[in-house]
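User: Hi! I'm working on a homework problem where we have to compare a predicted structure to a textbook description. Could you give me the structure for the chain below?
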Amino acid sequence: MLSASLVADTANREIGMPKTRTHARQRWPVAVLGIFALTGFLFVAASVSSGGADLRPAGGDAASLLQERSRRIDDRRKDARELRSDIDALSSSGSGSALDAVLERVKSLEKPTGLTSVEGPGMRVTLTDAPRSVDAPGIDPNLLVVHQQDIQAFVNALWAGGAEAMTLQGQRLISTTGIKCVGNTVVLDGVPYSPPYIIEAIGDTTAMDTSLQTSPETITYANYSRDPRYQVGLKVETLDLVKAKAYAGSVGLTYARATG
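Assistant: Happy to help. Predicted structure tokens:
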């Protein structure tokens, strides 16, 4: 015969075990719901952050990222050109002799300042880095890539040859355009571009070609392009038709101010 204490202990264990499992089963669904809620929140946050687009464009390499950024900026510039056209249309609808004189003055300056699209015969200059296979001992690697000074040399030579309008990477160049070299890319109006660098100019092709052939800076680059030790790329073409879009950036000037 079992003692009273043993019976009581057995009863307590039998009663207590189901109670413990019941509490565990009650806590488990709550934890699962919490995990699902947190996961859903993370998905929503990622969607909002990316604006519905892929956070990392296909490819993932530097060239792909630069191309994606350039494409987006090109879209913004297209929007800016359309807005500028709307503003011009609204401005021209005004009346008054003083306003008409100002509008006429602005209209006469649009073409020389690059605010209108231009097309006509011209030239194309393509500059590229040396092939990766070039590995001549003792050669400075900086001599195997295109730099800002190289691009600027050809741009200046084309202007000197009478170019009426010019683009770099499809973007209109004006008197205030800045071309900068940052690492192995060139930055134009704050937008980075990778090679090949394509310069297109509209104007007298004979005069521009003569300027390219006689400029000391472009002659130096051409010599490097023909040297088998360097092999930087250079291609000059004469085209029957070149199109230059209107400049869509800011025409305002910013400059440093003295303080104190």
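For your comparison, note the following. Helices lie at 4-50, 62-92, 97-113, 148-160, 205-214, 216-226. Residues 4-50 form the longest helix (47 residues). Good luck with the assignment!
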